[in-house]
Fold this sequence. Notes:
Oligomer: single chain
Order of helices and strands: HHHH
Low-confidence stretches: none
Mean pLDDT: 85
Shape: flat
Amino acid sequence: MTFSKREKSIYIELIVDIIAAGFYFSFLFSLSTPIDNPLEALGGTLLKITVASIIATIILHTFIIGADPVEAEDERDKAIKHRSTQLGYYALFTLNVIIIGSIFIDTFLEIPGSQPRFVALDTPFMIANAIVFALIAAGLVKGVSQLVLYRRGF
């Protein structure tokens, strides 16, 4: 199966995003004890993962795609890009509605002195990580939908 340079670029971005998300969430779940300032600890980790992702993407693009420029974007490419971006935003919107809805449900159904009933989004730390997950998931939806639209034809 042959791939265009644009498809190879999308595959590279998806693979790097999945690996970076794996590192981030594995670090997140490795925090077994509560730390004093979790957002500060995760900020440093997020910065390291972001820099490593950028470097990995540049190296992979250089070796896999090469120095040749990507083909000029035609109307089909623009339509695929717009449709996949639209699908990514739908996913982001849906996940954010779920996050906000779970916070409201927990707030309105909370019994004083009890644990949250719906989802444990009771701290800013957990809410921030849920939003990071929503952003990653939306990016993956966008990339996968681009690949499907290129392969299926649009």
